From TrEMBL:
Biological role: This is one of the 2 subunits of the biotin-dependent propionyl-CoA carboxylase (PCC), a mitochondrial enzyme involved in the catabolism of odd chain fatty acids, branched-chain amino acids isoleucine, threonine, methionine, and valine and other metabolites. Propionyl-CoA carboxylase catalyzes the carboxylation of propionyl-CoA/propanoyl-CoA to D-methylmalonyl-CoA/(S)-methylmalonyl-CoA.
Keyword rRNA processing listed: no
UniProt xrefs under SUPFAM superfamilies: Glutathione synthetase ATP-binding domain-like, PreATP-grasp domain, Rudiment single hybrid motif, Single hybrid motif
GO MF term set: ATP binding; metal ion binding; propionyl-CoA carboxylase activity
Protein name: propionyl-CoA carboxylase
Listed InterPro entries: ATP-grasp, BC-like_N, Biotin_BS, Biotin_carboxylase_complex, Biotin_carboxylation_dom, Biotin_COase_C, Biotin_lipoyl, CPAse_ATP-bd
This protein's UniProt keywords: ATP-binding, Biotin, Ligase, Lipid degradation, Lipid metabolism, Magnesium, Manganese, Metal-binding, Mitochondrion, Nucleotide-binding, Transit peptide
PROSITE patterns with a match to the protein in the record: ATP_GRASP, BC, BIOTIN, BIOTINYL_LIPOYL, CPSASE_1, CPSASE_2
Pathway as given in its UniProt record: Metabolic intermediate metabolism; propanoyl-CoA degradation; succinyl-CoA from propanoyl-CoA: step 1/3
Stretches assigned to the ATP-grasp domain: 97-294
Length: 644
């Protein structure tokens, strides 16, 4: 648009992508959010120093902070967002519910007031009837939210939700409302201007969540019929007009199995998942926000808003999906390649190769948005993009994302906010391989080993007179996967490897480049994509197949016989310790040396990415040692508590 930009950043983000992209950049403080991104005075100083005329707040931090907007307006600076009144009205969940009711919007039954303490919370929950949702009045982004199904849950939920709310929002007020079991989370995107005009840009389906935070979003929803879509959109617009709302906003609803919908909250900011709406409507939401903030009227009417095609956003996080569907992982990205070579793919990310994922901020790496003419097209594009997405240095959730996109319930559109716990009742275990999958992985592993062996016969810059060693063209190998050993024979013929296993022979085209992380080749004429994560001289290979990393051991037949003579390494007993499941900060410790703890009793709380995680004793016993105290920073798998 020809508008010069100023980026603000903390010390931890001094090499961030947005800092390099902006025309100017101003450091606003240390890594801690309260000293930088939540420090209004520091940001106001940056605004004044650079002569900025407007501020776009992004997705989080001060994007819904009315005090910040008031200070900007007092200084004559435009806020690219809604009014103070709208932010205040929708930012408080109690007030927003009252305003929604006044605008004729369907609302969820609940307690219309502030919860005083844990006992009061239990009393209210009994009156409403379990299950109930306990959540921060000033909250958002899934923080400060707990589901309670009994009195004990209500007491624990009140304590943890209020602590998270105070930590994340500086406001520990809590409210309680009826929890609708197996609902869909469907939201309506709205745009309003300063001239009284408002439109809705259809819906986004955001039902697949973990800990009330979205994992996969899509637009449109496979569930809604045209009548329900229109009714939800009209109620969202009614709320906007009641508020005098301008800028982009999102009205979130819970929708039950009969397409009855209830107001959840309104986010008075741009949503993380806004690209899926941009894809299916052709409307650039940020462009519209800037025009509206300048005072221009909307040039769009409701009939100008189409639904064209389908878009799916996969939130790629630096998280371990095998731990509670995603506990944060930190580290430096030593290899990072986005799948932008795949058509109809958009990557919205704030990191590059070499960037560090720290404990200070949200662990999102990228919003991977894929588009297609149909939902199946969008799913297939997403699968190809995820298979080609190279991320090294941190644990990430691509295995879970990829598995969801191929799961039967998701493909059929049979989803709810309980999706993950219902589809993966024992937690996510990774891609479950069938016999064909195993053959493909073993064949690629055998070919990689053969390529490495061939390379060892090649000498660069050798003199022409040097005697050449003949490269091998046949190998007898022993391959191990899941502790199952299999002998296979590999033969190189022309540009193909022929891999014979048991009674089957697979033909693998030699498109394998050992210096590339991607393996894009054909097996028996069918295209296949894998990733080579690591390889070493001991025969250990790590290969990513359909999102999940598999460890394979490949040895020559001779080396395999020698290996059987080696002594086994003893395993370490971890049944008597409590390990940190993620990097973070110790919020509190609930035991001392000599205490007797029951199985399942809380021993400490770890805070990571502003989420509080209660750690419990795995078995009953007496505490032998406590290695941490409140305020300590811990790493993944650090020993926190030892038992006798």
């Amino acid at each position: 648009m020809g508008i010069k930009t100023v980026a603000v950043y903390s010390i931890a983000d001094n090499n961030a992508r947005h800092v390099r992209m902006a025309d100017e950049a101003v450091c606003i403080g240390p890594a801690a959010t309260k000293d930088s991104y939540l420090n209004i005075d520091h940001i106001m100083l940056a605004v004044t120093k650079t002569g900025s005329q407007a501020v776009h707040p992004g997705y989080g931090f001060l994007s819904e902070n009315a005090v910040f907007v008031e200070k900007l307006e007092a200084a004559g600076i435009s806020f690219i967002g809604p009014s103070v009144e709208a932010i205040n009205g929708m930012g408080d969940k109690l007030e927003s519910k009252r305003l929604a009711q006044a605008a004729g919007v369907n609302t969820i039954p609940g307690f219309d007031g502030i919860v005083n303490d844990a006992d009061h919370c239990v009393q209210i929950a009994r009156e409403i009837s379990y299950p109930v949702m306990i959540k921060a009045s000033a909250g958002g982004g899934g923080k400060g939210m707990r589901i309670a199904r009994n009195d004990d849950d209500a007491r624990d939920g009140f304590r943890l939700a209020s602590q998270e709310a105070a930590s994340s929002f500086g406001d520990d007020r809590i409210l309680v409302e009826k929890f609708i079991d197996k609902p869909r989370h469907i939201e309506i995107q709205v745009l309003g201007d300063k001239h009284g005009n408002a439109v809705y840009l259809n819906e986004r389906e955001c039902s697949i969540q973990r800990r009330n935070q979205k994992v996969i979003e899509e637009a449109p929803s496979v569930f809604l019929n045209e009548g329900t879509r229109k009714a939800m959109g009209e109620q969202a617009v009614s709320l906007c007009k009641r508020l005098g709302y301008y800028s982009a906003g999102t009205v979130e609803f819970l929708v039950d199995s009969e397409q009855k919908f209830y107001f959840l909250e309104m986010n008075t900011r741009l949503q993380v998942e806004h690209p899926v709406t941009e894809y299916i409507t052709g409307v650039d939401l940020v462009h519209q926000m800037i025009r509206i903030a300048k005072g221009h009227p909307l040039l769009l009417t409701q009939k100008d808003i189409p639904i064209k095609g389908w878009a799916i956003e996969s939130r790629v996080y630096s998280e371990d999906p095998y731990k509670n569907f995603g506990l944060p992982s930190i580290g430096r990205l030593y290899k990072y390649i986005e799948p932008l070579h795949v058509p109809n793919v958009r990557c919205d990310s704030g990191i590059d190769e070499g960037s560090e994922i720290s404990i200070y901020y949200d662990p999102m790496i990228c919003k991977l948005v894929c588009y297609g003419n149909t939902r199946n097209d969008a799913i297939n594009t997403s699968l190809e993009a995820l298979d080609s997405y190279v991320i090294r240095g941190v644990t990430h959730n691509i295995p879970l994302l990829r598995d969801i996109l191929t799961e039967t319930n998701f493909i059929e559109g049979n989803i709810s906010t309980n999706y993950l716990s219902e589809v993966y009742p024992d937690g996510f275990k990774g891609r479950q391989l069938n016999s064909t999958d195993k053959q493909h992985i073993l064949a690629i592993a055998a070919c990689v080993f053969s390529k490495m062996d061939m390379r060892s016969y090649t000498f660069l810059n050798e003199r022409p007179s040097t005697a050449k060693r003949k490269e091998p063209a046949e190998w007898t190998l022993v391959i191990s996967l899941f502790d199952e050993e299999l002998q296979c024979d590999v033969k190189k013929v022309g540009n193909k490897f022929h891999v014979h296993m048991k009674t089957d022979t697979l033909s693998v085209e030699d498109h394998i480049n050992l210096s590339s992380p991607l393996i894009q080749t054909n097996i028996n004429g069918k295209p296949i994509v894998m990733q080579l994560v690591s390889k070493d001289a001991s025969g250990k290979l790590q290969i990513v197949y359909q999102g999940t990393t598999f460890t394979i051991f490949v040895l020559s037949d001779k080396a395999s016989k020698f290996l059987k003579m080696m002594p086994e390494k003893p395993t370490v007993d971890v049944s008597k310790v409590v390990l940190s499941p993620m990097p973070g900060m110790v919020k509190s410790v609930s035991c001392e040396v000599g205490d007797t703890m029951a199985e399942g009793q809380e021993v400490c709380i770890i805070e990571a990415m502003k989420m509080q995680n209660s750690l419990v004793a795995g078995a009953s016993g007496k505490v032998k040692a406590v290695h941490v105290k409140a305020g300590d920073t811990v790493g993944e798998d650090d020993v926190l508590i030892e038992f006798e």
